[in-house]
Amino acid sequence: MPMDRHQDPDATAVAQSRLIERLAESERSIRDILINLPVIVARFDRHGKGEIQFVNMAWSRILGFDIDSSVGTEIDSYVLLDDLEKWRILVKNTKDSDGDLLDSQVRFKDSKGETRWLKVKFDQRESGEVIVLMEDFTERRRLDAELLRAQRLESIGRLAGGLAHDFNNLLQVIMGYIDLSQRLNKNNGIDAKYLKIANQACLRAAGLTKQMLSFSKGGNPVRMIWALEDVVKEAVEMSLHGSSVKGFIKCKSSMPKVDIDSGQIHQVFNNIILNAEQAMPEGGQINLEIRNEWERKDANSREMVVVEITDSGIGIQPADMEKIFDPFFTTKNQGTGLGLTSAYWIVQRHDGDLQIKSEIGQGTVVRVSLPAVRNVATPVKSIVVDQKPSHRAKILIMDDEDMVRTTLSLMLEEHGHSVTSTEHGQECLDVYRRALDDGEPFDLVILDLTISGGKGGIWTINQLKSVNSSIKAIVASGYSQDTILADYKKSGFSAVLQKPFDMQLLTKSLADVLSD
């Protein structure tokens, strides 16, 4: 029997009602998905003033702005001024906005004034409305920048380490002869004055090579437990001596200690303070606050000692902020571009963090944080007394540079020691064995770590240890590709001398080793 062509009106109404419900439910689902998307979805008028008509919840999560307050405002007003022209070009050419990854990234200012990198993709409607998807790329850019920086530093570090090694050998010769000349010169006339100036120049050059080494593979810290406030105080006093800029330190009581290479960390604060001073050519004040904080990362937390250095200088240009840690980048006429690079690398190698925030005309804040160490004692600073030791030792030295061997021999002989010099490991081992067989053993050996074309310090100390397990040895080097200088005792050495070193440091090392 054929069906009635006329449907039941009630059935039709029910079907239409169910269809409307399904459409409404679908719209609610789409809206829920849209609202909760992890990327920003915004709709604005392209032809008008670019007023925002709609933004989803990601707008508030990522940029921190209230949604209701943002609707009706111009979307251009949230774009960083330097990227405004780029944004407008992307809006104008919406069909081409899905091109190069970097070209489609625009900087926005969030509610806290921080910069956020957003990757944008546009959809142009016939009505003139534009829908834009904006994905937060800030963290990815930061990680990419850190990776690129690490690669740059590693590359430049290889070059810097090799140059520093050769340069330190030459400085060792110069400083050694200056030291000897000062001792031989009995009067305080003009010659002594010139020698003092030459020695100061050598110390400055040595400081430059230390900065080069700090981000090479030879810059591993030689750590001890220190009170960080002592290192900071000393750096402030030395860096601002005679300056129109004054430093003020505020430190919490009962601060935990830190496990650091005090020389390297002193260099970090010296570089930062000098930068702050140079940013205030008319004088001013640098405030340093030292406190402890808990750093939480993932599921772990650790206590940190934090130093914040704040100046009221000219600030850093936004275009320069991404390059301030690059090797040899500088805005100063006479700068080396190594100050912040070495500071960053030193702090990284101490398992810490260095961050910089700056505003033009407002000043700069540098934050250095280092892992805290509790329930340990700080070392007592020993005073180096430059005097001739009572014990006259028989010393064997090994170095591949003839000038260094001669200089070091003269420095040791000036204190009455008997010195034999060798060029490489095998020769050193042979001479040591002969002396031991003849019943006239050496009291001490001083070994260069890196020997060109021959057996170096590590091979030599291992061979000497097999001959005499109680041998006393000092490692002397201007560069190490390994962690030997940072953990010299593990390799069998009694002390370490970082080239270039002067007579005082040499005398103290000899006294410490020979008295054990």
Please give a structural write-up.
The chain is α/β, with parallel strands linked by helices. It folds into three domains: 21-136, 2-Layer Sandwich (Beta-Lactamase); 139-224 and 378-516, Response regulator (Rossmann fold, 3-Layer(aba) Sandwich); 228-373, Histidine kinase-like ATPase, C-terminal domain (Heat Shock Protein 90). Helices cover 41% and strands 22% of the residues. It is built from 14 helices and 17 strands. The strands form three sheets. Strands 6, 7, 8, 9, 10, 11 and 12 form a seven-stranded mixed β-sheet that branches. Helix 11 links the parallel strand 13 (394-398) and strand 14. Helix 5 runs antiparallel to helix 6 and helix 6 packs across helix 10 (339-349). The protein is elongated. The protein starts with 8 loop residues before the first helix and ends with a helix. Mean pLDDT is 79; it is low at 96-101 and 382-387.
Summary of the model, kept short:
This protein has 14 helices and 17 strands. With 516 residues, the chain is α/β, with parallel strands linked by helices.
Classify the fold: give the CATH topology of the largest domain: Rossmann fold
Percent range of helical residues: 40-55%
Structural class: alpha/beta
What can be said about the biggest beta sheet?
A: 7 strands, mixed
Low-confidence stretches at least 5 residues in length (pLDDT < 50)? 96-101, 382-387
What share of residues are in beta strands? 15-25%
Overall tally of domains: 3
CATH superfamily assignment of the largest domain? Answer: Response regulator
How many individual helices?
Answer: 14
Shape call: elongated
What is the terminal separation in angstroms? Answer: 117 Å
* Mean pLDDT over the residues: 79
Return Rg in Å.
33 Å
The top level CATH class name of the largest domain: Alpha Beta
Secondary structure: number of strands: 17
Level-2 CATH architecture of the largest domain: 3-Layer(aba) Sandwich
